[in-house]
Amino acid sequence: MPIARMLKRLSLLALLGACLGEQEQSPNDATRGPLVVFAAGSLARPMRAALDSFTAATGIPYTLESAGSLELARKFTDLGKGADILALADEDVFPKLLMPEHVAWYARFARNRLVLAYSASATGLDEAKAGAWRRVLTRPGVEVGRADPDLDPAGYRTLLLFQLAERFYREPGLAAKLEAYAPRMHVRPKSAELVALLQAGELDYAWMYESAARGARLSFLALPPEVDLGRESMAARYDSAHVRVLGARMGDTIEVRGTPIRYGLSIPQRAEHAAAAESFLRFLFSAAGRRALRGEFLDVIDTLLVVGEQIPAAVLELAAPVAGKSAPDSAPSD
């Protein structure tokens, strides 16, 4: 093994050893896992990369379940399930559906933006690239996919994007047309499921997060920041868009307003392996953990922003507990 690689691995082991020192002295094996992680679909690849590194160095096993963030929240509220780490694509799901019964705090840790991904054989691609994507997407025979707004934040954010595009381009009726030409037959429970359809050429275009498109090596069109929900400085503009989606329980609905795309995570109240979860968070936001997340194209913010109460000391060490403060204004790279 090259010396540089050996030193890097020893450094990682030392970091994790410090994180886990108290656990290793505990007779309670429950603190050693297996770590149960629920993660939004667009977080599955980044979280798995970080978890694999954590497990390789510590021996603590994990299970990872991914789904749309609203669907994951309902596993707590409707099905009585639990996890040690809950990582969602929309931080607002925590206060709207899960606090204070299931989680007491959450931390903002990453951001994203929506893009229009396309297949290699997409119809009207030259026109879309030239800026006429609205005309292309509302043309008969063009197959457009999106996520389910009642299950996945990417789904309701797509509808919010449609409203913002209508205002930005001054095209009355555009939002309704874009929704109609992305029919239910092409709606999937989470945006990650659209990747395979694009790769197989079954869809021409699909709405998804930039990190997901980059992670799958898909080509995509970037939209103006006034539309893509990716810029903190555009928060007031985004707030003009709103939709209603299913709430915590069947029959309930909640209003969702446009906000910059912010990812959040928490250790739920009844986590069985809370100590192991805290150790994983220490690793996740170490230099090695951030490299793993960014290696899968996730735009991790420099400082965690924490909202809530009963925040673990391990999280406070990593975070700024400033409810309501925005992350630094920086869009994902083009």
Amino- and carboxy-terminal Cα gap = 36 Å
How helix-rich are the residues, as a percent range?
Answer: 25-40%
Give the overall pLDDT as a whole number. Answer: 88
- What is the number of strand segments? 14
- Give a quick account of the main beta sheet: strands, pairing sense, barrel closure: 7 strands, mixed
* Gross geometry: globular
Count up the helices. Answer: 14
How is the largest sheet built, in terms of strand order?
A: 2-1-3-12-4-13-14
| Protein structure class | alpha/beta
Strand % is 15-25%
Regions with little confidence, pLDDT below 50 for 5+ residues = 1-28, 323-334
Secondary-structure element order, N to C: HEHEHEHEEHEHHEHEHEHHEEEHHEHE
Task: Please state the CA-atom Rg, rounded to the nearest Å.
Answer: 20 Å
Describe this structure in words.
This protein is α/β, with parallel strands linked by helices. About 40% of the residues lie in helices and about 20% in strands. It contains 14 helices and 14 strands. The protein has a 7-stranded mixed β-sheet with strand order 2-1-3-12-4-13-14. It has a 5-stranded mixed β-sheet with strand order 7-6-8-5-9. A two-stranded antiparallel sheet has the order 10-11. Strand 13, helix 14 and strand 14 (about 320) form a beta-alpha-beta unit. The longest helix is centred in the first third of the chain and has 22 residues, at about 5-25. The protein is globular, with a radius of gyration of 20 Å. It starts with a helix and ends in a 14-residue tail after the last strand. Mean pLDDT is about 90; it is low at about 1-30 and about 325-334.
